[in-house]
Design goal:
The chain has about 280 residues and is an alpha/beta fold. It has a single domain, classed as Rossmann fold (3-Layer(aba) Sandwich), CATH 3.40.50. The protein has 11 helices and 6 strands. Strands 2-1-3-4-5-6 form a 6-stranded parallel sheet, sandwiched between helices. α2 crosses α11 and α6 runs antiparallel to α7. One of its GO terms (molecular function) is hydrolase activity. This is Alpha/beta hydrolase. Pfam families: Abhydrolase_6. Keywords: Hydrolase.
């Protein structure tokens, strides 16, 4: 059979090679919807300073900058959870040392899928999108996803949030000035398909939004929830924790007080990053 073409960009392959050459433990960062991999830049610097080799691939076909993403919102249109997971697994397979994996939002779901493949030494999932088996659907989640699921055109086009939609789903725990600043600096369009996949996960036995929570090679897992998150409230994350805690591996759950979905990029990002780093220091060295 012919080999499958690589989905890694030259930049992503260079990051992997740099991590391998460093001899340091890699930490792979997985971003979620409405962000690019550049949203991890401050985290990467912090983890590099702590002695790790930070690697932050994008999703397949991600534009290389926020400006390019805003110029072509449909670049995100066709993306699905399975192909994103495979993209990160391809990057991890090129690493010479088993990495820790950190993901936010849909990146937190994908991080758990990677852990379920036994490909992560230790994993942190922050405000993770729910996987099949998580049944809680709070009203705020429904409202946050409405810009996508209320329009079938979201299956064919990238979806850009208005500032008011971003403020409700992401920046509800922030003042308006910071909310505007984050919207201007980070927000890009997102693929609608993953949200439709998540919404239908418990109705579709063949869904890609499933996680192997029973794999004995899953490794230690930390789930972090934002107390004030509207997009992924604490309840679904708590349910994911209860399911994951049946694994024989270490499973922990932390709630960050008064934090919304923007907790990885807003003024309090370093507190979340330090909580993540403290967990990985226990298991990923």
């Amino acid at each position: 059979m012919p080999e499958t073409a690589s989905t890694l960009t030259e930049t992503e392959r260079a990051e992997v090679n740099s991590a391998n050459d460093s001899g340091r433990r890699p930490v792979v960062f997985v971003h979620g919807l409405w962000l690019l991999s550049s949203s991890w830049d401050r985290w990467r610097a912090m983890f590099d300073d702590a002695g790790y080799a930070a690697v932050a691939p994008g999703w397949p076909n991600d534009p290389t900058s926020v400006e390019q993403a805003r110029a072509d919102p449909d670049a995100f249109a066709a993306t699905m959870v399975g192909e994103v997971t495979d993209h990160y697994l391809e990057a991890i397979a090129e690493l010479t040392m088993k990495p820790a994996v950190v993901g936010h939002s849909f990146g937190g779901l994908i991080a758990q899928k990677i852990a379920g493949e036994g490909a992560s030494l230790a994993t942190v999932a922050i405000d993770p999108a729910p996987f099949r088996g998580v049944l809680s659907v709070p009203l705020s989640s429904l409202k946050s996803s409405a810009p996508v699921v209320s329009h079938l055109s979201s299956l064919r086009h990238g979806v850009t949030l208005s500032f008011d939609e971003f403020r409700y789903g992401w920046a509800n725990a922030l003042d308006e000035d910071e909310a505007h600043a984050l919207y201007d600096e980070f927000h890009v369009a997102a693929a609608g398909n993953p949200i439709f996949q998540a919404v239908t996960a418990n109705l579709n036995p063949f869904t890609e939004v499933r996680v192997d929570t029973k794999n004995p090679d899953r490794g230690p897992l930390l789930l972090i929830g934002g107390e004030s998150d509207h997009t992924v409230p604490v309840k679904p994350t708590e349910q994911a924790y209860k399911i994951q805690s049946k694994n024989d591996g270490i499973t922990e759950f932390v709630v960050m007080a008064d934090r919304g979905h923007s907790l990885t990029i807003d003024h309090g990002w370093s507190e979340v990053a330090q909580t993540t780093l403290d967990f990985l220091e226990r298991f990923a060295r």
